[in-house]
Structure formats: C-alpha cells, structure tokens
Amino acid sequence: MARARPTFLEFFAGGGMARQGLNGIFDCAFANDFDPMKCAAYRSNYPDDEIVQGDVWNLEAAEVPTAQLAWASFPCQDLSLAGGRRGLNAPRSGAFWGFWNVIEKQHDRAPKTIVIENVAGLLSSHNGRDFTALVTEFADAGYRVGAMLIDAAMFSPQSRQRLFIVAHKGKLPAGLTMDEHDPVYHPPTLCAAVEALPDKTHMAWVWWRLPYPPQRNADLVSLLDRGPPDHVWRSEKATQKLMAQMAPLHRQRVEAALADPAWNAGAVFRRIRLEKGERLQRAEIRYDGMAGCLRTPAGGSSKQLLLVTENGRVRLRPMMAREAARLMGLDDSYRLPPGETKALKVVGDGVSVPVVRWLGQHLLAPLAGVASTRVAA
Known about the structure:
The chain is α/β, with parallel strands linked by helices.
C-alpha cells in the first residue's frame, strides 16, 4: 500500500500557488485567505477542497487540522520600500501575528515545520528588529530556524528574490544543514541580519543546505504570446511617448532590436530617476531574456510593459495575465480570474511555483520524513 503523503496548512493562500508547488509532495489539509476574489480563484482551481475565507485573526485553532507543515506567505506591503516600511506591527504585514496566534494555540498539535515567505525587505525592516522578533518567536517556541534568499530567476525568466524562513521542531535529518553559509542562498544581507540576532536566538539558527537547480532553459520571449488581441496594443502616440522617456542607453537597445527583422520583445518599467538633481520619469528596457519582478496592478509604475519589435516596426503593450502566470511557473491549465486586473493581482501577489517545488522536494519533504523525490513540473 502506498504511503500517505504528509499534509500542510496554507495560510494567506491567495490563488493557491504554494499548493501548486507542493502538489505531489504534500496534501493540503487547510487553506485560508481574507480576499474574496482570491478565494474565488482558489475554489476555481481546487473545487473539491474548502478554503476558509476570513481574517486570520478570527480563526479558531481548534478548527485548524493537525498537519506536518504550515506555509504562510503573509502580506508584504508594510515591509517593502513601496509600502513605507511600517513594519511587522502595521495592519497588513502584522497579519503574521494572527497566523502565529493560531500556531501557538495548537500547542502540541502545532506543525513541526513552518515556512514563512516574504520580501527581502523583512531583513532590514525597522533596522532588522522585525526579522529578529520573528526568528526569536520561533526560537522561544523550540524551533530551529534558518532562512534563504531565493531568486525565481534560477527557475523562470523573472527577477523575483524572496526570503524563505524555514523553522523546524525536532531532530534534524542528516545532510540538511551545513556549518557555513552558502553565498548563493545566504548573501551578505542575510548574513548581516543573522549576525545581529541576540545570542540566545542565534543558538537556534541553522544554515539550511539546498542544492542548486539545473540551468534554466526558458527565456522571456519563449513564454510570450505572439498574437494577443488587437485591443491590448497601445497607440503609436503612447509608444513614442514611452520611447521619449528612455535615456540614450536604453534607446540604443531599442534601435539595435529594430535593426534585426526577427520578432523580439523587451520588458519595460517606468521608474523615477534622479539626474543632475532633477527627478525624471524614465522608461527602462531589458533584452536579457528576463522580466522584472511581477507586481500587483496597483498603479502605472507597477505595470510591466512589453516593447515588441519585428521587421523594423515597434509596438507597445502590457504583459498579459496568462504570460505573467507562466513567469510564476503556472501552466496554462491554471484557471485565472476573469478580467486582466484581477488575474494580475492573483499572480503578482503569489509565490513562484518552481521555487516552492524545489524547497518542497529538497528540504521540506525530508524534514517531514519523506525521501527527496523529483516531482514533475
């Protein structure tokens, strides 16, 4: 008889992208999210399973099932530069404490392994005090704690560095830790934050060992649609306005692409740059086969644009939600919400599926007592 898979709890579940990554490694026993639209997306993709819609602070620990793993991608807005760095006690990112309240009240039923996923800004929020507070909570509760900064660019053509804190209570299986940090997963910013931990907390710290993935074989162009609907294209006037916002170096990149008759696309972001003491809005393009970090469609600067060149013609359009989903590792069978804005919000707020899968295979499964196995993408 086949052995049952270990189970996990998915807090701040969104559209279920952590579940997508852990599929085939863990079975989902519980899911929760506050956002009705995201809950609808979750139900659309997992119609046979329930997601509890509501504030994490209102969850009753007794109603949350026992599981080996808890995954929590709590809101990042108050930890990022864009969110004003209000910190872990601000209303949105403070939802972590609602999650932790549930875990603490589970007492002996609490998951042996916990994963926290958030932006790298958590390391420096409030001069590192928020990271210290979070790690100390785990340490005081008897968990060994380690963290990794992992860029989704290792797996898919998107620059998306995220912090993954992994806490485990119990004996650590052999081969999952190392004596020294790994510069790929433990860069100087993380090492500095760890060095600043109080001595008692530092005693609970571990450096997790994670193998390197195979070389990525996809680039941005390979994931884009060549024939999107006509209405998505911006006007010629809008295209020229954007190109006028480019500094000479970026304009030269476009001219070089125009000189090649082949179909090509570069990812564009608008940014405010300080030049000669003046704040200027600049359009910046990259042709390195990568997209910039996907964000939620909250404003003009957050919308990732594509400049498409072919046979001497240049055209401008936004990245479509399905293309963004591919960059996050979702295949085309994943059901996106109706409407580009809603779909982009679900995708932009999610976690990179192949990163979750890599963690699940090579660290989380062994911590749950399951041998590392390869799961089909």
